[in-house]
Amino acid sequence: MKATILFTGGKDSTYALHLAYLQGFDIVVLSTIYPLYEYSMLYHKPIFDLLRLQAKSLGLPLESMAVYSPKQELSTLYKLLKRVKENYGVEAVVSGAVLSDYQRMRYSMICDELGLEPYTPLWRIDQSKYMFELVEHGIEFILISINTYGLPMKLLGKIITDKDVYEIINRSRKYGFNPAFEGGEAETLVVNSPLFRRRIRVIGRRMIKSPYEGVFIIDSYGFQ
């Protein structure tokens, strides 16, 4: 079945792409909504230049649309998926929704309107187990922002390992945040996966704003 994936370049959409491929979906195009405002409950804000590099590494075309306000989120998604369906003949839409009913219900609603089959392989997955699965399946990712107390700033810009996952889970129990960052505690960027043809190299620096807020500023990037 031909499919597109709602792709952000983070761990969730990349792993959903990986699982969909293993389930036999023919992923023919990446679909991305780019919010031009600070906070969206429906979409993550991708780093667009890096997104294009990820698409090139995956060997897939990237279709995108900007959205200018929260009121336009659903109509923009409808327009994007309609265009993708017409141009690529897709029959299904894969998403990396894990815990958000808000996201999953709205994605499903748009799919129903367009006659597309929604597929959410990560839905309600055990959060701690999921973090270990990412590492075990070769999803290499870094944290590019931290927005919660208890996550160590040393993880910014670092490829997350099994050892880091243990620390994240232990700290999530101590400080009460979601270990898979489903509450917006951190944002991730994938630099390599089994479906990538080339690994992505990023060079940057940590900027610590407070004990619970930091970002990894990317100064340069390219294929390794």
UniProtKB/TrEMBL annotation:
Recorded GO MF terms: diphthine-ammonia ligase activity
Source species: Staphylothermus hellenicus (strain DSM 12710 / JCM 10830 / BK20S6-10-b1 / P8)
Sequence ranges assigned to domain Diphthamide synthase in this UniProt record: 1-216
InterPro entries: Diphthami_syn_dom (IPR002761), DPH6/MJ0570 (IPR030662), MJ0570_ATP-bd (IPR022427), Rossmann-like_a/b/a_fold (IPR014729)
Pfam families: Diphthami_syn_2
Cross-referenced CDD domains: AANH_PF0828-like
UniProt protein name: ATP binding protein
Gene3D superfamilies assigned: HUPs (3.40.50.620), putative n-type atp pyrophosphatase, domain 2 (3.90.1490.10)
Transmembrane segments: 15-37
PANTHER family hit by this protein: DIPHTHINE--AMMONIA LIGASE, DOMAIN OF UNKNOWN FUNCTION 71 DUF71 -CONTAINING PROTEIN
Keyword annotations: Membrane, Transmembrane, Transmembrane helix
GO BP annotations, alphabetical order: protein histidyl modification to diphthamide
Coiled-coil annotated spans: none
